[in-house]
Amino acid sequence: MRRGSRAGLTKEMLLPLSTEKVRALSLENHLAFATVRAGQGDSEQIINLLRIIYLAFFLREESASGADLDLYRQAEAALDACVERAEVGAEWLLLDPEQTALERLLVVHDEQLSAVPKHRYLAAWDRMQRFITGTGRSPIPIEEEFAVDE
Predict the structure, then answer these.
(1) pTM metric for this prediction
(2) Considering its fold, how many domains does the chain have in total?
(3) How far apart are the first and last CA of the chain?
(4) Which residues of 19-39 are buried (b: 16+ CB within 10 A; e: fewer)?
(5) Which residues lie below 8 Å from residue 115, measured CB to CB, with a gap of 6+?
(6) In angstroms, rounded to a whole number, what is the distance separating the alpha carbons of residues 9 and 118?
(7) What is the pLDDT of residues 11-55, one digit of tens each?
(8) Do the beta carbons of residue 137 and residue 55 sit within 8 Å?
(9) Is residue 11 part of a domain?
(10) Record's superkingdom (predicted)?
(11) Domain-located, residue 148
(12) Cα(107)–Cα(65) distance, rounded to whole angstroms?
């Protein structure tokens, strides 16, 4: 008899994250966002928000609302714009459309955290960590450009 891919996983690893863990992660995520939204952020909060974007991207199959790649592209672009402004001396601040993009992503990520089995969360975390220490290129694919016949 063949074992499935879940062989060796404990019951704990197959269950969703604990309610306490989900609440703690969500609070940490929303506090980082609120700090930047209020114009009180710095590179630390931006790094936390980037981590959230990439972790959510790696968990995108865990919720129906997470399937839209534009969600991740827009959130990443919002933080890129914030960083570009900060590099020329502006505050670490998100403009209204950028805030909206991050808010949408945080809602989806909260859904993901509530539903994901622990083993998938840990696998996504591992992928995110490998990305961070790797090439530095975004794991989020850019939009494909379609050639227009002339």
Answers:
(1) 0.87
(2) 1
(3) 59
(4) eeebeebeeebbebbebbbee
(5) 16, 62, 63
(6) 10
(7) 989 999 999 999 999 999 999 999 999 989 999 999 999 999 999
(8) no
(9) no
(10) Bacteria
(11) no
(12) 9
Tokens of 140: 């989020």
> Domain range for residue 42?
17-132
Distance CA 70, CA 73 (A): 5
Task: Tell me the pLDDT tens digit for each residue of 53-70.
Answer: 999 999 999 988 888 999
Torsion angle in degrees (nearest 10) through CA of 22, 106, 90, 47: 50
Tokens at residue 3, please? 């074992």
Interhelix angle 96-115/43-58, rounded to 10 degrees, is 50
- For residue 57, is it within any domain? yes
Length of the chain: 150
140 belongs to a structural domain: no
11 vs 130: CA distance, rounded Å: 26
Identify the DSSP state of 61. Answer: G
